[in-house]
Specification:
Number of domains of chain B: 1
Order of helices and strands of chain B: HHHHHHHHHHHHH
Strand content of chain A: 5-15%
Shape of chain B: globular
Number of helices of chain A: 20
Largest interface: A-B, 28 and 25 residues
Number of helices of chain B: 13
CATH topology of the largest domain in chain A: D-Maltodextrin-Binding Protein, domain 2
Number of domains of chain A: 2
Number of strands of chain B: 0
CATH superfamily of the largest domain in chain A: Periplasmic binding protein-like II
Oligomer: heterodimer
Largest sheet of chain A: 5 strands, mixed
Chain lengths: 424, 291
Amino acid sequence: MTRLTKIRRSYALALIAMVALVAAACSGTSEDPGAGQVEVAHYYGSDLGQQGILDVNATFEAGEAVVSPIEHEAFKDQILVALAGGEPPDVFSYWAGARTQSVFENGHLQPITQVFDNADVWNNFPQALVDAGIHGGEPHLLPFGFHYVAFFYNPHVMEAAGVTSMPTNSQEFIAAAAQIAASGVKPIALGSMNRWPAQFWFDFLILRTAGPDYRAKLMSGEASYTDPQVVGAMELWKQLVDAGFFVDDANAYTWTDAADQVANGEAAMTLMGTWITGYWNGIGLEPVTDYDFFNFPVLDPAVENAALGPIDGWALSADAANPEGAMLLLEHYADPGNQLTWALEQGALPPNSNADTTQLNPVMAKALVEVGKADSYSFNYDLATPPPVAEVGLDMFQAFMDDPSGYADLLSSAQSDAQAAFAG
Amino acid sequence: MRPTTRWAILFMGPPILLFTAIVVVPTAMALRLSFTDANILGQTSQWIGFDNFVEAFTNEHVRKSIRITLVWTLFGALIPPALGLGIAMMLQANTRFAAIMKSALFVPISISLVVVGQVWIWIYQPGDGLINQMLGLVGLESLEEAWLANRSTALWAVFIAWAWQQAVLAMILYLAGLTSIPGELVEAARVDGAGQFQVFRQVIVPLLRPITTVVLSLIAINSLRNFDLVFAMTQGGPVRETETMPMLVWRILFRQHEQGLASAVSLILFAMTLVVIGGLTWWGRRGSYVD
């Protein structure tokens, strides 16, 4: 046998091996369960209810939910790549509001009217939450959990500082903060390293002084960041920072760092969503005894009481490989028992009104009552304004925490950047 | 066709096809996208000519990011190679201590940049971070700082973490280069009366020029494409003070969804890389003893 023949034979063998591999791969695909398998991607990591999703999926008998949990921040990128690449999961978790609107407008979602009809979401969910799932006149997002943003505090620290009743207006709030500071503890923890935790301050200061209607205009570009309403809100925020009420170097910490500072008594409170309760429960803190919350104080009695927070939901990809199975899974997710299972694990509130809320811990039950008492419910900043504009504001909040004295310049530069972002 | 030509096609074809598929085609696609208003989520896009490039060069965030990247590359080309060469000179002796130190110093290069970032986040942590604790121990509490949150220290804090790893890369290459220098040349220089510094400057440094070109090229490429470490440590913050160009591209694409502008900035970065690497190659060949 010549050398060339040997080489040819080797190539032939390699080719046969490759064909065999491809054939094996194809046969593997054909053995997949097919219609019963639903691909699910979500952003709930271990500190945000991952186990709850596993528990809910374990009871999905109509098929099999194949889950890819993705780290919360990484999810924001990966889902865009999957959607743009035309290979999205069948079902994915997403944030209600401007983010879902952006994905919907670009044709990446399909309606889930069947789910809303079969699970009677129309009547079983509060109207505000049903509306949050409607885009283009049709349901596109199934609400799975919602949150309430408030001041979560450490009762032991409050007691040690002599703060016996929680503040309800700005004077009481400033007095309480001063009392806590005098006891040697920082009144307010904030971890704005990832920018978004600072947004709740901006949200509430605008909502409580200018009201939800003005804020909606600001979020849609009809109002300006240089308006007196925004300037006034930032001035209030600056006064609180200047008074030394915030922890030093807020931009060095994450939201969990801030939660830890409150938990271990380095700070008294943090303005955060109810998901912080899931985190605290996970590290062994007891509701009411070790943590509780009070509402953001009234700043202007003439302004309506708006509740604030995100709504987490599930969306169905336009390019879903298994839309029928996905619809069944979404119906499973709409079930009150399943919503409660996950809510208890994550520290969320279940949107389905038939969920047995007596199982919620006293702090979460109180949050549910407060949402019910609110005149309106608003999305937090980065879900209320289009994603490119949200980037502008989130940068501004972090810059503000770095140097509050320059807020006037920050606002005028935010206005020109936001205008450009709205113009697209 | 001659047999040698056939063999050349057989062996060169697959790599050329692969290179075309993973480099030429994506670059061409990026070039096309850079002239459109493409949105990462959008299904269609419009041709907008040079608008994205005009936007890139007039946008203050892009200009700042270019500045940060150039400063990083400049200091990257100075500090890690100098440190690497210094350590390599110290460790070139064939002693037991040098062998142990070499093994220990190889560790940073074997760690992923994300892990390096996590380690350095702890080192820089305000309060109980290593640096602040050490400052506290020696009575310099007044110098304690939130190194990664302070706008004037964040960039240098991340740079030091990166330089720590790159210095090891330079050291490894210089160690290899030093072993290739004939001992007779050094001996001859000494016989001619050259001192330690003169031997280093007149013999070792010129003979290491090809290695230095490789070191500088690798470090320049690592500077210009620096993403992992910045992402792990600061995500470009605080207030965009550590936003290198790859970070900026990520942000424009995934946070602002502007694929066209992100492609234009990527191409500017690509052009910068070509200029830097071209310049280094020219410099390396210009005075190379090998040539």
